[in-house]
Amino acid sequence: MDCDVLVIGAGILGMSTAYHVKLANPGSRVVVVDWFGGPGQGNSAKSEGGFRNLFTSETNFLLADSTIDWMLHLEGELGHHIGVSRIGYLFLLSEEQYSGQRGAWDRIGGRAEMRVLDRGELEERIPALVTRFEEDEEAELLGLRDVDYGVLGVKCGAVDADALTRAYEELFLGLGGEVRYGTEVTGLVLKPEMELEIPGEPFVWQDALIRGAETSGGVIEAETTVVAAGVWSSRLMDPIGVDSHMRPKKRQIFAFKDPRLEPLFHVEGLNEFGTMPLTVLPKSNVLFRPEMSEGSVWMACADDLGRGFSLEDDPQAEEGYYTDDVYHVLSKYFPCFGDVRPMNSWAGHYAINGFDELPVVKSVPGMIYVGAASGSGIMKCDAIGRVAAALHAGKEEAELFGGRRFRVSDLGIHQRRAERETLVI
Ligand SMILES: Cc1cc2nc3c(=O)[nH]c(=O)nc-3n(C[C@H](O)[C@H](O)[C@H](O)COP(=O)(O)OP(=O)(O)OC[C@H]3O[C@@H](n4cnc5c(N)ncnc54)[C@H](O)[C@@H]3O)c2cc1C
Fold this sequence. Notes:
The protein has 425 residues and is an alpha+beta fold. It has two domains: 2-51 and 162-246 and 355-411, FAD/NAD(P)-binding domain; 89-154 and 250-348, D-Amino Acid Oxidase, Chain A, domain 2 (2-Layer Sandwich). The chain has helices spanning 12-24, 58-76, 95-100, 102-111, 119-125, 137-142, 161-174, 233-237, 319-333, 381-392; strands at 2-8, 30-34, 50-51, 89-93, 114-118, 149-153, 157-158, 178-181, 185-192, 208-215, 218-227, 247-256, 278-280, 286-291, 296-301, 344-352, 360-364, 367-371, 397-399, 405-407. Strands 1, 2, 8, 9, 10, 11, 17 and 18 form an eight-stranded mixed beta sheet that branches. Helix 1 packs parallel to helix 7. The two termini are 42 Å apart. The protein binds flavin-adenine dinucleotide. Residues 8-14, 33-36, 41-44, 46-50, 184-185, 228-230, 232, 236, 251, 253, 300, 348-350, 371, 373, 375-379 line the site of flavin-adenine dinucleotide.
């Protein structure tokens, strides 16, 4: 099979890229392949679906803020049910954390809608929250910090990441794009630009380029091959010597549905739904959010030091990780979690670019790589897809949703110009 553009990976970044490339080139043949039976089944549908525009990096802000606008447009004006709920994104902070990052918060507040709540307001609005741990030996042992401030991102919340990926698929198919599910890519096809039909090509003296992929359904030749294979990208790119600039790290979600968590669904004045926002605790990057469609609460923890880089074939949530570990922090700040056990859990991987925690969109001859989303690929998906499509079109700038412009090479490697993100979860 021949096509103009072959996209490997039907995750959120592959589907967004495929859609924007096809939109810009209606007459071209764009084909998406994935080894799963549908879109988003890698890591995208496993996501917490949280989105925020509170970032220290201007680059991240632009990518996320324009994608949020796109998601609101997709649901509000285009009528796709992607479950966007602006429940807000609340960072709970100790005095030390808040004043230590004061400059950063002021900068963030200068460009994104943000509210700072003091301890009094937090206690009034969130009776379920413990803000003080005086003479609490366990809290001292756990190194828990008091809660003195809350920083609330207003244009933030959660989206159904599975539905969002499927919305891109629908848009893409509507333009005449093609998908081949149940198709495994086993390798990239490397060829010389000028083929001489000599065994062993390409030789070092030949200009080589990617010309498609070998798949379980045969070779697919393509003018441009987009590698958007998420944490599996290095398996395809390592053999041909192209760096994916990311390493996989396991991430787990535990879901709870219990009447004892009702207080989290009755919180006044933080969002229009009267629920807790997506909330990040002051300790250990523990976070949770209400999932309103099923009246449940999803909890995750972005553990760092001690959580190795590794790629598991079939990652599962570790029960002891919740009960023996995260639970102690969570139930101290929110005692309503006391003795509540998860009803469901699952696990996936972040593709972490440890250098600046920002995505990478770069090209090598015949190929574009879109990845290293560093745990925030859902909330930046539309902007990343537009940057990849602009790179494919040979443009220097991409137009993000809403008209803001973005220098394509900023997400590349050679002329990368991206401010390192410090508000990483
Ligand atoms: C537990 C968890 C919570 C998260 N929470 C958030 C959050 O709150 N907000 C947020 O913005 N982001 C979050 N993320 C990150 C987000 O999910 C990712 O950044 C995003 O899904 C990356 O999209 P992707 O398209 O690059 O990867 P993927 O969705 O993994 O897509 C890659 C696709 O490539 C396919 N593929 C790979 N290799 C091959 C091959 N050889 N042949 C055929 N197909 C192949 C896979 O099947 C897969 O479908 C979370 C991630 C996890 C794991």
